[in-house]
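Let us practice reading a record.
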Amino acid sequence: MTIDRRKLLQGTAAGSALLAMPQIALGADTIKVGSIIDTSGIFDLYGKPMDKAVTMAIEEINAGGGLHGRQLEKVAYDTQSDMALYTQYAKSLTRKDKVDVVHGGILSASREAIRPTLRKSKTLYFYNVQYEGGVCDRNIFCTGVTPAQQAEVLVPATIEKWGKKIYTLAADYNYGQITAKWIQHYAEKNGGEVVQTDFFPLDVSDFGSTIAKIQEAKPDMIMSVLVGGAHLSFYRQWAAAGMNKKIPMASTTLGAGNEQVVLTKEEGDGIMLVYSFSKELDTPENKTFLANWQKRFGSTDDIHELAVATYQGMHLWAEGARKAGSMDRDKVIEALESGVSFNGPTGKISIDPKTHHAVTPVHLVEVRDQKMNVVKSFGERQPVDTQLVCDLKKNPGDTTQYEIKI
C-alpha cells in the first residue's frame, strides 16, 4: 500500500514526544526485534493492531523458549504517521539499538524511507502490508497480498456470479492504477470486459456524476479499488441512490482496515472481497489466534488484514531463524528461501525465493452484517505480479522498486 493507502476513515490520534520514545524490555543477551509503525497519527487505526501483533508474536516465541536459547526483546518506535521520523528511527534501530530484524512500515512511502538504511546496515527487514507489488530486494521480505493474488480469484468468481461487463473505480495513484490493470487482465482472460475505468484523486468525496455515468453504462458489476476516508463516501452514496440493490459490487481494498464495520450493513451487505484473512475463517489455527488475541488484549474488534500479516511475518521470520540455526542475516535469508513455512490464521504461508514475497492462501468473502463471511478458500497463490519483474535468484544484487506493466 502506498501513499495515503492507509489514510483512514475518521479521526486521528495525536502523537506526543513520549510516544516517540522506544519501548524496550531490557535484557542481558537478547535478540532484538525492531518495530517501526505508526501507533499514533492519522494511520494509527492500522498501526496500533500491527504493534499488538508484534508484541503477541514475541511473547509466544519467548514462551516457546525463544530462539537459539535466547529471548526476544522488542525495540519499538512510534513514527506518528510522519515519514521523516521513519528515516530517523530506522537509523536509531540500526546504529544505536543494533536490532537483529525490523518489522514495520505501513505506507509504501514509509517502506521506501527505511529500506535503503536497513539494506546498507545489513539489517533484515519484513514489510507486512498489502501493497502494489514490485519491490525487488534480497534484504526485504513482503508478506502482504499483492494485486494479482486478489484479482486472479476475485475477477473470475464475480464474472461467474454476476456477468461479464465490469465498471472499475480506482484511486488515482500507483496502487489503484496497477490493480485496475490486473482487473482488466483477468477480465479478458475469463471472457469478461471492463467497459470503463475511472480514476479518482484521494480527496474526491462527491460521486454523484459518477453514479449517473454507471447507470448509463449498465455494467453487470462494479469493481472498486477506492481508498481512504474520502472514497468511503462512494459506498454510502451508492446505497443512498438505491444502486446497491441493482448493480452488485466487489472490491480489492474495502476491509483491509476493518472498513466494513464503518459502513452500515445496508451500505456494505453483498460486497465481495478477496483477502488472506477473515475473522470468520473456520480453522483451528484461526480460532486459536483469535482466542489468544482476546485473552491478551481483551477484544478482537481491532484485528485486520495488516495486523495478521504482521503476526505471521514475525512467526515466519522466527521459523527461518530456527532453520538457519543462527541469527546471521544471510543464513536466515537462505533458510527463508528454502521453503520454510508457517501455519497461521490465514493458512500456510511461505516465501517465494525469486521475489521474497509471500505465497499465501486467499479467501473469497462476502460482507454481510458487517462481517467478512468466507464463501470459498483457495490454495496458496504465487505473487505472479512481482514475478514478472523480479528474480533474486538470478539477480541477488537487485534493489529496485519496479512499476509492474501488464
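A brief commentary: The chain has 13 helices and 17 strands.
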